[in-house]
Amino acid sequence: MSANNMYEISGNIVIPNDKRDEFNRKVLKLLERGGIRKTETIYVDEREFTVVVPAKPNEHGIISFDYSIFEKEIMPTSTFNLNTGELIVPQKGYTEFAIIMYSIMVLQIAYSSEQCSLIHNNKPASAKGYIALINTILDEKIEYHEHIPDSEMDSRENEPLCRFPLYWAFRRDNEDEFLEWWDGSNLHISSDMKHQIHIWKTAWEDFSKCSKIRDDIRMEPLMGSVLTEMQEIWECRFVDKRFVDEFLEHRDNIKYLELLILLWEYMQLGTHYFPELTEDQVKRSLLLEIRDSYDEIKISGYVSLMTNHDQRKQIFGL
Amino acid sequence: MGTFAWYTGSMNIPEDKKEIFAKQMNKILYYGGMMNFEKISIYGHKIGLLEPVRPLPGEKTTFHFNYFEDDSWETAGFDSSATHFWSGKVGGQEFCDIILAAYTLCELYDDSMGLVMLNDKITDFGPYIAWLNNLLGTDFTMEKRRNLWNTVESYVLNEDNDVEDFSFSDLLDLIPHKMLKYAGGIEFADLFFITCGTGTLTKDCILSGSYPADILDCKNAISDYLAKGNVDEKKVKLYDLLRMDRKKRERISDPGLKRIAEWSLILPARVITYLSSEYCEDNFWEQWKDVYNNVYHDEIYKVYASEELEKERTTSWFESVPKLSTSEFLRQDKWFTFYSTPEELEMKPKYYISDDDRLYWWDGSDEVIISEEMEKWLKELSERHSHLMQAADKDSKNSYDSDAFIKDFLNTLIEIDNTYKRISPFQNMFYDFLQNGQRKEYRAAIMLLRELADENKDEGNAIRYLKHSWGLTSRKVTFNPGRLRIKRYMSIMANLSLRMKYFGF
Question: Which end of chain B lies in a sparser environment, N or C, as judged by fewer CB atoms within 10 Å?
Fold first, then answer.
């Protein structure tokens, strides 16, 4: 699936009142499951960092968002109005952010009481792929009537649910970047990631056996260092604010500290190969050359596991 | 414009290694699919026959076509008696890969310094050595590039290489990727400081007693010295110091120079040179070029790495590079390999080379492995061939007309080439068939070829999307399954042992 197609809607989107709640619920789910978030600035250890929060409505019923955790680019702020069903997106881009925006647009067409069509290059376009994607994300079938003259495809009402997982749309081979939604069995996780989780689990068990005193390490400076390197060295997706908040709230809990140390130590692997340079020089100029580029996904995956409390409990017992 | 592969060294192959070198080079070119075309004209038809590169010892050879890429580039060649290899434009696919492998062999055997290059970029020779070890049964390691300083110095200071600037990125290209973590050390650090500067050395990020700490202290000593008085006069004195032996440097009494002299007892002369070049905003290599032949080499290094790391660094360079199969080595998956695939072919699987495309080189050894699927196909073809032989048998009851046979054979080949594009017979296969038309096995094989050509027309029609440039067309078009079946059949017919095994002739 490519979002280079620059779809538009022809016609007037009017969401009927009796369908508004249902429609809004689905839009919120598309945003959430599609990885769409709002960036925020926080301060940790007197350093400024960008984190993300869910796209939630304000007191006026307006949802603002500007980031896809899959695309990892800050976009100009877009809005969705729960009262009117209006979506305003100044810049969709061409990839993961755009795919979710076009999905919402197709949902608007599906719910509109006034007839609308999806347009590409001034011609009616099929929403076949997007319907399948929406159906899969929502896990329910939406009704959509295509109005393409001379097309073999007409009403899709009686067609069976067609699965099109989001990771296919995002051209991924697996769902390693979806760990925050993992229930232990519902995702297609790579064997590499599974093996890494096993390594972390084993390392965590070793931590527990050691009962090492960690007087020299404090939560907030360590969190600051982790966030700095995730952003500046590894160029990871911005972390969920809940991760930072929870760990800082439990700053005096040794178990939380050790969970963060586990991540930090994983990020440092390989730095010992160049003692003739400073640590900073190694990290900024060499670390990504000697590590696997996929380690960036693993680092973000670890943070996702930290916010996925069920799986965190399952793997780390916390 | 265009991509050129080349070698910076002088290809000095030791006398006692010339024979083996030539043999190995010929094997690279042969198994790498390098070929020429014999152009013939027969019954008014012009045909190109594939002629794999397989020179006799001492011969010169030239070639321009790669069988796996199905494309031609500028003529390249190997003179086995002079042990000299050369090339022109090489493209960016299989032809290029084999040429780089050939230059890698040159680098490995050359008793002087040299580097494999692609335009102005140093090539990581690791993957090429991996393939050579597989193909040649050798145990080459990457130790030729282990002495970083000597390798970079000889590369930069050789005027023939026309190196304008040597960057950190060039250093990362030079060091084989898999060896990078073992490439650390003082030489690596010095090259880092030369290419990136010492600006990131600040007191708060440095561990006491570390190499960066020593470099920073030496840097401060040099800048303190050069800051006072006439900097040019000071530079002269500094370079005088570099020419002194250890005893003289130990006895230096000038207070400003003394601190630097103390550092010169444990740091190489190049350190003092790059730190003073940096201070004076001079180009290090320009300065080094003038002094490097006449500087001290009697410093006694400190060891900054742990014993364990030192051991790892030493042993890893001397490990033989793990083997890489020909199909893995030649696998093409660059951004343009499947670029702009027509919508109709989007859902088709991507084409990657496998041993199914190397049947011409099958010899019963594990050089080329016949896959399960290919085994099935060969057996199926063999059965069909047997049935067709019965039909051919009936024909032979009338008198055999060799003229008609040859014309039919030629027409079949020409039609196939027109329909599927870039399908040429192997030279040996062509002459073999030409001379044996009276035998039913051969006539049946041509009938089978015609049937295959007919059956695969629909899939083969994907070739209609061929753009002006073969190499820039998606491989889902140029290496469509229909075309591949015909190409593979032709290679089976050309491999006499394989043909005998499955078809009995």
Answer: N
